[in-house]
Amino acid sequence: MNAWLLAAAVLLTAGLPPCGWVVLRTEPHERVAGLNLASVITAVALLLMSQGFGRTSYQDLALVLSVTGPAGILVFARFLGGRGRDALTPPDAADDANDAAARTADAGHPRHTDGGR
């Protein structure tokens, strides 16, 4: 094991678990930051392994990851945008009753759909 591989091992073992914790346990905007940092750490680790093993194909993987990583994070942010932890939990019966009461209150007010004629 040379210094390049040691640096990659340290980076992966010390850098990725905190990112995983942030992705699994925090608010959505912090999850996106943790995912972005994990993508950067993985790309740097691939570059270090490329030097350690003497293989240029790992540099290609790091390049592809550095291009597709932010795009994947944008897709993740778009997919979960505007939804918090409350959106992932099933609604209660009390919420259903409140929704039904709001619908009956709105039913008493007719809406004009004839364009104002």
In short:
One of its GO terms (molecular function) is monoatomic ion transmembrane transporter activity. This protein has 117 residues and is mainly α. It contains four helices and no strands.
How would you portray this structure in words?
The relative contact order is 0.10. With 117 residues, this protein is mostly helical. Helix content is 75%, strand content 0%. It is elongated. Helix 1 runs antiparallel to helix 2 and helix 2 (28-53) packs antiparallel against helix 3 (57-80). The termini are far apart. The protein has helices spanning 3-25, 28-53, 57-80, 93-107. The model has no long low-confidence stretch (mean pLDDT 79). This is MrpF/PhaF family protein. Residues 106-117 have a biased composition (Basic and acidic residues). It is found in: Cell membrane. The chain crosses the membrane at residues 31-49, 61-81. Its main location: membrane.
Oligomer: single chain
Number of strands: 0
| Structural class by helix and strand composition | mainly alpha
Q: Termini distance?
A: 83 Å
Q: Strand share of the residues?
A: under 5%
Task: Tell me about the largest β-sheet.
Answer: none
From the alpha carbons, calculate the radius of gyration and give it in angstroms.
24 Å
Percent range of helical residues: over 70%
Order of helices and strands: HHHH
Question: Shape, please?
Answer: elongated
Q: Figure out the total of helices.
A: 4
What average pLDDT do the residues reach?
Answer: 79
Subcellular location: Cell membrane
Pfam families: MrpF_PhaF
Membrane topology: Multi-pass membrane protein
GO molecular function, one term: monoatomic ion transmembrane transporter activity
